[in-house]
Amino acid sequence: MGAALAGLVAGVVVGGPPVGASAEASAAAGGRKTFTGEIDGAEYRVELPARWNGTLVLYSHGYFLAEWVPEGVQVANRVETEQWLIEHGYAVAASKFKNDGIGYGVKDGVTDQVALLDWFEKHVGEPRRTVSSGMSQGGLIAALLAERHPKRFDGVATMCAEYDTHATWNSGLDITFVVRTLLAPGEDIELVRAGEDAAASRDALAAAIDRALETPEGRARLALAGAVANIPGWYAAHEPRPTTTDERVAAQALWTKWAYSYGIGPVGRTELEDRAGGNPSWNTGIDYGRLLARSSRQDLVRDAYAAAPGGDLAADLKRLAKAPRIRPDAKAVEYQYRHGIVRGTTPAPVVTLHSTGDGGAVTDQERWYADQIRRHGDPASLRQLWVDRGGHCSFSSADELVMLRTLLDRIDDGQWPSTTPTRLNASVSAMGPAYQKVLDLGTGADLPLDPAYTNFTPPRMLRPSR
């Protein structure tokens, strides 16, 4: 889910755009140039400083809901990051992707970003070094770009990324399957292939979650729904980690409602199914008792059921075991394996940044990615960084810039600089107050927060694709 950043550009036509492309350019005071246009229906923006240092940061945005598409084209996670990079000589560029970047546009994202890089090299010049950066679903695109075009990228920087999106959609199905089975039995809710019923099914899931929060038994079942996908009990970027059982369940339920019932629930699945040629998700052969036994959130389930006078975990697991399963369409599964999962090669150094309380792109994704790099790449080329906050992509521009500078130092020097939390937080503080704001995607509030880099070990993914 992308943060709403706007870019305002205008200008005159630039001669000689590539086939299928249109372009405009404008010059700002001081010699900075802005290029905008479309390539094969994908809007793009390029910002070129007056004194370009030869480095291009190519940014890939996250998943856009049809109801929430930012104006213009984002070229960084935060506008302050964009401004700092340009002021310090870096060129920044991004495609919005076809269809305004809505939905599961991973395949389009890779294609459109390569087309923009081609345009840049033809009309601006070949960069001395190119960094592929991205947030959320765009983090997957950023990693895929380097894996599939290894000679064109010198480094990768991902924020709140998912590298195995097939696992995300399978876990999302597990969550809504538990909600439907235990909290909305008998209701007409289609979890996959919902078609015209998608919005009604989405709303019914959300209503069931709201009702469940009103009773101890409902809260216990919500804890179970979140636990089968390792969803954390921390939602708000601007609030401390919840500590009581009820607070943790309530926070976890916000992820269940907004990320997995609304975001990639029945409506989001319809968009994915249109792209993939069917439903790619399944729970045939899934034992939810075993998933719970391996979950990093099983303590919350135990506590929530213990606090529910009428709660019976064993009985609820039996109901889940007996409930009819959902099968995938083979063509759609193949689509996901082809477009939605990284291999884990490291043709260039990679730095990742994740918030510890992220339930939209769970931290398990980073552990899985590191495992894949151990199998298929060079572990020494990977550096994983963490900030101790709730929320999805809850980073300040200082967090983002410190991460990018860590990667650039690695590219320049051939070795990673120190990335202890103490050093990173000192670097964040040194950026100054203008770079400390963090956007809470749940509330829309944008507030300054203290530096929060930390050490962290994520849990293992419960349903990895490999």
Automatic annotation (TrEMBL):
This is Alpha/beta fold hydrolase. It comes from Streptomyces liliifuscus. Keywords: Hydrolase. Signal peptide: none annotated. Residues 112-170 form the AB hydrolase-1 domain. GO terms for molecular function: hydrolase activity. Pfam families: Abhydrolase_1.
